[in-house]
Amino acid sequence: MRGMGNMQGMMKKMQKMQKEMMEAQEALNAEQFEGAAGGGMVKVSVTGQREIVEVNLDPSVVDPDDIEMLQDLIVVAANEALKKVDEKTNATMGKFTQGMNLPF
């Protein structure tokens, strides 16, 4: 019967960890991350759920004769914002999965 107490204690710890992981994931999902390009002339904001919520363009970067540059700057800014999401997710959720080799 001694093993049952250890099992119950382990289950309680797992439930607590699961709750903490869910809370951390919810906080990440609600957070916004910004990426910038062109010296801050193009900014893209994304949520922790990796959804673009805002694109800000400095009017001086909008050149009808060079749409390609603007497109490239938007891609760079969006990728930077998404990289920040990944870094924060790994830093936050990694503490729960250390040594487990689990994907998020």
Characterization of this structure:
The structure is a single chain. A hairpin with a 4-residue loop joins strand 1 (32-37) and strand 2. The chain starts with a helix and ends in a 7-residue tail after the last helix. The protein has 104 residues and is an alpha+beta fold. The model has no long low-confidence stretch (mean pLDDT 89). It has helices at residues 2-30, 67-97, and strands at 32-37, 42-47, 52-57. The longest helix has 31 residues, at 67-97. The protein has two helices and three strands; from the N terminus they run H-E-E-E-H. Strands 1-2-3 form a three-stranded antiparallel β-sheet. The radius of gyration is 21 Å and the shape is rod-shaped. 58% of the residues lie in helices and 17% in strands. Residues 1-22 are annotated as: Disordered. It is found in: Cytoplasm, Nucleoid. Binds to DNA and alters its conformation. May be involved in regulation of gene expression, nucleoid organization and DNA protection.
